[in-house]
Amino acid sequence: MRQTYFILVLALLILGCASQKDFVAEYDFNYSGNFKKYKTFNFVVNAIPDDSVTYYQAIERTISSRLGSQGFRMDQDRPDLLINYKIFSDSVKYRGYDQPNFDYWLNRRMPDFDLTEEEERQQRERDETYNRVKFVEKNGLLVIYVIDNKRGNTIWQGYTAGDFDVYSPDGQSDLTKATYRVMDQFRLVTRN
């Protein structure tokens, strides 16, 4: 009896852990982004289907909360950054890049990072290349774009694969988790 009870509890734990969705996020960034000067953000206004408004609001709340905790302020009039996002629900072929770790790259650009000019040039040549990586996601994809509002180009994009069914009971929760995972990769902190 005791052994049966133990096996039952163990099976329930394993099933509970297996049913949790774990979103793995990737990101790419533009080497020409002026990351130290960005302080404000706003969202690109997109047409949202009426039956999906709450799901898209969940994405925007999660992004706003995350950026707010990193010191960014929302600015309706003249934001430094524009945030856009897209949910792909079908099979997607997507191109990303194999790049150095974002934190490492940002820290290397700090003025107190001690390198000779030659060492700096060599590291930039090695690190600042865009090595393409192709992804094929069969379930769907959430992509978040961070755009330099002055220049009009994407400076960072994060993405995670998942079957995002906005009509399912877990749709809002899944989108919130996935959005948080993606924005967790955008580790830029500003001092406002």
TrEMBL record:
The keyword Mitochondrion does not apply. Coiled coil: none annotated. Residues 26-186 form the DUF4136 domain. Keywords: Signal. The keyword Nucleotide-binding does not apply. Residues 1-24 form the signal peptide. This is DUF4136 domain-containing protein. It comes from Mongoliitalea lutea. The lineage of its organism: Bacteria, Pseudomonadati, Bacteroidota, Cytophagia, Cytophagales.
